[in-house]
Amino acid sequence: MVNESRLLGMFLRFLEINSPPRKEKAVAEAICAEIEGMGLAPLRDQAGEQVGGETDNIIVNIPGRAEGAPRLLFSAHFDTVAPTEGLRIVREGGVIRTESATILGADDKSGVAAILEGIRAVREEGVPHGPIDAVFSICEEVGLLGAKCLDYSLIRPDMGFVLDAGKPVGGVVATAPSHNLITAVVTGKPAHAGVCPEEGVDALQAAARAIARMRLGRIDPETTANMGIARGGEARNIVPARVEVQGEARSRNEGKLEEISRHIVEAFESAAAEAGASAEIKIDRSYNTYRHLPTAPVVGLALQAARDIGAPQDLFAAGGGSDANIFNARGIPTVVVGTGMEKVHTHDEHIAVSDLVKAAEFVASAIRRAAAAP
Ligand SMILES: [Zn+2]
Fold first, then answer.
1. Distance from the CA of 233 to the center of ligand 1, in angstroms?
2. For the chain, what is the radius of gyration of the CA atoms?
3. DSSP, res 199
4. Is the backbone peptide bond immediately before 108 cis, with ω within 30 degrees of 0?
């Protein structure tokens, strides 16, 4: 049985420790202490050094006794998108939130706590379960770096569950987009804006024309695009000679992602050419899409566990990536599961205690169902 007060105590302990990306050492120690308290031995890989952070991914291998049960992976990240220094947690009406200006950090410490409590609950029941790998990752919020640098020789799961989505709790995310990072540098020619503007080539205006021509925002139900940052120019009285624009495009359809990315490149190139400027555009793939059919074993098991906790039987589509994109690319069929966290990445971030309990129950249910599978 999931123990609510034990789960909540652990969750609050994690929240109280500041853990922005690359500065997750203290919370890693708290997580390892919980794991050791369960009589298990946490392992570390070398990911911290690779990403320039102060701590590594945490891996736990739990042997199983249920014959023929698939080996399950449960994973959540323990970095938070922003620092939580000075966090003041309040509990009102069964909801955990913050009254400070920081985020709460339920993304994704709710996932970490739910996984640990779910596993603990099943182990206490003393009934045979299958083998389990747990991975608690660093630096998810800055490009899934922990998952990308994970030492995969330390795990060998048949399927995975990443507890890193919002409402509904127990909702099963079976598909997520590919993500392109787009960087354009438009180069013109500087000139004195008052004395000889005709000698200049205005890179800022060319970039602005390019952006004005682009289809951005929601392109279709599975495709989005955004120009997020534009930086350039040197002074009010100099014709701007260099502008850098950073944007992105995402789609759960590779063809559509290719098309919107090409459209963005063409907009920069044509606007720059018309102005007599040049444009250099770089596209980096951040992560790849995945899509699991309702008939996939990982989806089947996830939906069984979802049913056990009263979660909807629909499959959800994500608009963003998670460590699951990396696990899937590494050949581990993985879905994402909602922990019930809401308004993540804002200071309104909150989570209902009852949802946190259900998320832990989802984990316990998945483990029990896997052991009962033929
Ligand atoms: Zn997250």
1. 35
2. 23
3. G
4. yes
Q: Which residues are catalytic?
A: 79, 140
Q: Which 8-state DSSP code applies to residue 69? A: P
Centroid of ligand 1 to alpha carbon of 296 (angstroms): 24
Strands 178-187 and 132-137: unpaired
pLDDT one-digit tens code per residue, 221-251? 999 999 999 999 999 999 999 999 999 999 9
**How many whole angstroms separate alpha carbon 324 and alpha carbon 93?**
33
Quick: pLDDT tens for 112-166.
999 999 999 999 999 999 999 999 999 999 999 999 999 999 999 999 999 999 9
How many Å apart are CA 338 and CA 174, to the nearest integer?
A: 12
Q: Which amino acid is at 45?
A: D
Written as one letter, the residue type at 251 is S
Domains delineated in the chain: 4-176+289-372 (3.40.630.10), 179-285 (3.30.70.360)
Long-range contacts of 214-220 (CB under 8 A, 24+ apart): 214/263, 214/264, 214/267, 215/260, 215/263, 219/251, 219/256, 219/260, 220/256
Give the distance (Å) from ligand 1 centre to CA of residue 356: 15
